Structure formats: C-alpha cells, structure tokens
Amino acid sequence: MATLAAPACATAPASTQSGLWSWIATTDHKRIGTLYLWTALAFFLIGGLEAALIRTQLARPNMGFVSAETYNQLFTMHGTTMVFLAVMPLSAAFFNYLIPLQIGARDVAFPRLNAFSYWVYLLGGIFITLPILFQVAPDGGWFGYAPLTTNQFSSGPNIDFWVIGLQILGVSSLAAAFNFITTIINLRAPGMTLMRMPMFTWMSFVVQFLLILAFPPITVALVFLLMDRFFGTTFYAIAQGADPLLWQHLFWVFGHPEVYILILPAFGLVSEVLPTFSKKPLFGYNVMVYSGIMIGFLGFGVWAHHMFAVGMGAVADSIFSLMTMLIAIPTGVKIFNWIATMWAGEVRFTVPMKFAIALIAMFTIGGISGVMHSSPPADLQQTDSYFVVAHFHYVLFGGSIMGIFAGIYHYYPKITGRFLNERLGNVHFWLNFIGMNLTFFPMHFSGLLGMPRRIYTYDAGQGWDLFNLLATYGTYLLVIATAVFVWNFVRSRTRGAIAGGDPWGAATLEWSIPSPPPEYNFAQIPTVTSRYPLWDLKDPSWHEGEDSHGDTGTPGPSPLREETETHTAKALGIPMPYPTAKPAFAALGLVVMFSGLLFLRNDLFAVAMTVTLGGAAMLIGGLYAWLTSPLE
Which of 198, 316, 411, 476 pairs with 285 at a CA distance of 20 to 30 A? Predict the structure, then answer.
C-alpha cells in the first residue's frame, strides 16, 4: 500500500530546460541517465563493429582482411569497449534513471557528483577509443597482462592510452558508486524499508559495493604499470625479481567481481519485467535479495579460477574450485525463482518479456559451462581456448545484454513517453536470439577441438573452418538485428505510440508518475507500506492467498488521479538542484591532467608538465567553483 499524491497525467515534460547547453549543465538524474543511455549505446555500436571486423578476419583460414597489428587493436578495443564503455554504462543509465524513482526520491544524493561521473566517463571513453583512428589503439588484450604490457614488450604509446584511460574511467565508477550508496541509504521514501525496495534497486545496491571494493585492486595494478612505463620502476620487471603472477592476481581480484558488476543489474531488470508480465509478485523475494548479496560476497573468492594453469598448487586450486562451485548456488536460486514467478501466472509475451526469458535460458548455458571450469583438470584443457570465449559471451551477451534489452523495451515508455514499435521489437529479438546462438554456440566445438583464443589467423584442415564460418554469419545477423533496434529506438522517439504513466500495469513507484517524469519526480514524497504499492492501490484484494510479498496491513482508497495540468518545480515550490557546467569543466580538467603523461613518451618533459599542471588547475578550479556555489 502507498499514499501517492504525485500528479499522474499521461504525459509531462521531463524538464523545462532545452538546448545543448542545458544538457551540458544538467544535474537532473533522469537527463544524466538519458545521456548515459545514448552514449553507452554509441559505444555498444562501436564495440559491435569491432567484433564484426574480428569475425570477418576469422571467417576462413589464412584470411588477410586486416593486418596482425590492426587485429590486435580491434581485439583489445572490442573487449575494453564492451566491458568498460558499453555494458557497465548501460547499467549506469538505469541506475541514474530508475533508482530515485523506485525509492520515491526527487534526485540522487549528490546531483553534481552524478554529472561529474558522466562527463568523466564520456571524456575517458573518447580518450581510450580515439587512438584507433590513428592506428595507435591499445593492443595488449583487454586484460593487459604484464609484463607483456611493459615497455620491454610494448614500447609504443598504445598501452599508454589503455592504462591512463582505465584510470580515468575508474574515477567515474567510484564517484557514481558512493553517490548511489548514499542515495539508497538516505533518500528512501517514508516506509520504504530495505526489504520493500524493488529488486532492481537491491541488485544495484549490491553492485555499488562491488565497485568500491573491486576497483582498488585494478587501480593498484594500473598505477604499478603506469610507474613502470613512465618512470622506470620495476614492479613487473621479471629480471629484477618481480613476480610474473602479480598482475594476474591484482587484475582478477577485480576481474571476477566485475562479471557480477555486469550481470547483477541485468538480473535486477529481469526481476522487474517478469512479475509485471506474469502479473504475479516475484517468487521468493527475500531469498532473491539474499542470493544477490551472496553472489557479491562469494564473487571475491573465485578470482584465481582464471589462473588454474599457472601452477598455484593443490591447496589453492582446491579452495578456488570449491568457491566456484558454491557461487553457482545463489545464481541457480535466481533462475528457479524466475521460473516459479512465471509459473501459473498471466504471462504476456511482450518484447521485454521475451528478452527476459532469453536471459534465463542463455545465462543458464553460460553458467553451466562456467561450473565446468571449477574443475582444475577440465579448466586446464579448456583455458585459453574458444570454449572459454563461448562461455563468457553466453554470460555477458546472453545474460547482461539480453537483460539490458529487456530493460530498454520495458522502460522506454517511462523515459520517453512513447512505446517502441512491437513488430520491430519482435524482429530485433528473434534476429538477436538466433544470431547470438549462431555466433557463440559453435565456439564451444572449435574450442574443444583446440582452437586457441587471441589468434589472428589459422591454417585449414584443423576442424575449425565450419565453426568459424558459422560464427561469422551469426555476427552479421547480430549486426542486422542491432540495425533494426537502432531504427526502432530512434524512430519511436517521435513516432512511437503514446504511453501513459503506467502502460504495462506494473507495481512499483516509478510507474505512479507521468511518462516521462517531471523534473521533480514526485509532487509529494509518497509514503510506502507495501512492496507492490500500485497493485495494492489498484486492487486491494489482488494478493489474497499470497504471502510472498511479506507485508501486512489493509490498503486504503487509491488517491491516484488523472490530471491534465502539468507543473514545474518552481510553481510547486519544490527546490531542485541548480544546473551548472562546473562538473563537466572539472571532468575535462581531470582528463587533460592525465593526458599530460603521454608526452613523457617522447621525452617532452616541459610539455608534459604544462599539460598536467594545466589540467590540474582546471580540475581544482572546477571543483572549487562547484563546491562553493549554491546548490539550488
């Protein structure tokens, strides 16, 4: 149950601001979420193009479509782009847009820090991507194994862009994580206890802690590598006594929790979609929350299963093998609870529902092949083979991307006030589903036949030819599917059918307000007494015989009403954050400051100092102006 006094008109302007400058200066969480969405989709297209070029090179034996050096750059940038510039920021788009709406808040705790996080991401993404146009893009793999990425083996500027770019992007992720933790803890509406929060907010909450705990190890690893490359230290110099496994341990302490940073938001989105289109509460809500927390906790104890081939010894192998098996339990709980949610429900097979069901199926395949790698003897045979490539693409594409598409189709009406075209959506889904399986399923077989990862070309007659050709055809199908999605996404922005405040008949607070939401979100902060407030208000008897929602009380009459008049925050007397470009200026200063290091490559010490100090002055000046100016 809830008391909701927000205007509930069918449509309302998201903001009174307009023009390019309003987007640069915005501190509205919804606009920042929209910026994240458009930017991350652009990087997703770039990463997909890189994948298409890679698969074209591998379509047939002894292809010469691209050079070996270009292939290494494409290979490195595809992984880096998809992980750091596409999937993570697509999740951040939903963090920004949905979390305040789902918890009944008017904005995030630190609106300017939120804007700073976006601009650091955008500028950092440009910094790390632009070099590919000049054939100096990072070329050491998205995992950047040292000492192969030290000056001894990678003497050009390529790895410099990767090392510095990831440090910049890390600042963005950490700033966002602290902001959302503070928002969720402090800005929940009255009555919105932790165990009444929507599942997407819960999974996002877990992810923010993973970000804060996982990024320090890779930050240390990157600082060591940066010091080795620019200042002559020997953290990764094997001849000077360095441990060749130091980088791997530091990287994978980050790298495996990163998998859950990528997948848990998709789990949260699917946990919103399935109850809505099954017309049932999420089965086992409490267990779903605890399993998400357990995944986050256990995720820090499995990193060395990436290193079974390095000779850690029987004790270490056994511990990490056991932990890898254990983490499958809370993941399996989620899968069975999703299925139970649909069981005997009033299932509507809309496009978001199809993507949600596809996540369950595809992630199950990826999870099963992942559990196979918990056995060190099996892993020794499969590691660095295309079997592993198939495994993690079923997890990240079949899991994260399918879940994100489910979220986009589900929340597009809330963000824009219009529906995506259902017919085009179905075409996109089936092309995407078939193309994904045609691309990645054959890789299981080529991997079991011995095809190694990270190879530029291969000879005929090894049994890989057909599987590589099928994978390439599947990639082309994914390109077509993505083109259909882009056309639908752009076209529907102005030509889609008008959506009301709650077009799907959903249950959570974000659907109680207009689509798109007004700048202030809620005219009056709601009081929440139920996990599914809109369902309780629409039909007080809907949960008769149900105890899965775990709440008590008697719902009162619904105060929801249709209003034709739209309001501004000023007219309603609601204080809102003041728009300012100072966070963007500070972000530019941060990127310029880091960029100065590049000039040390050619012994341009004076230029390096000038650029670095100039960037530092911009950063400090921007922060000072930002922190001393009024908030409202």
Answer: 411
Determine the pLDDT at residue 19: 83
36 to each of 23, 43, 117, 179, 623, how far by Cα in Å? 12, 10, 10, 16, 22
- In the prediction, which pLDDT does 632 show? 57
Cα 21 to Cα 29: distance, rounded to the nearest angstrom: 16
Parts of the chain with a pLDDT under 50: 1-16, 544-565
Give dist(CA 84, CA 166) in Å, integer: 8
Please choose, from the candidates 418, 392, 405, 331, the residue with its C-alpha nearest in 3D space to the C-alpha of residue 86.
405
* Chain position carrying tokens 């991401």: 121
Per-residue confidence (pLDDT) for residue 264, from 0 to 100:
97
Q: How far apart are CA 181 and CA 109, in angstroms?
A: 9
pLDDT digit string, tens, across residues 121-131: 999 999 999 99
Within a 13 Å sphere around the CA of 111, how many CA atoms are in the beta-carbon half?
A: 23
Q: Which regions of 25-162 does DSSP assign to beta strands (E)?
A: none
Q: Report d(CA 287, CA 299) in Å as an integer.
A: 18
**Domain coordinates in residue numbering, the chain:** 27-503
Residue 616 is which amino acid? A
Residue 528 identity: V
Active site residues: 78, 107, 142, 172-173, 256, 258, 260, 271, 305-306, 331, 334, 453
> 27-503 has which fold?
Cytochrome C Oxidase; Chain A (1.20.210)
- C-beta separation of 276 from 243 below 8 A: no
Q: How far apart are CA 195 and CA 286, in angstroms?
A: 7
- Which residues fall within 8 angstroms of residue 27, CB to CB, at 6 or more apart? 107, 111, 112, 114, 115, 577, 578, 579, 580, 583
- The model's pLDDT over 331-357, given as tens digits with 9 standing for 90+, comes to 999 999 999 999 988 999 999 999 999
pLDDT score, position 543 = 57
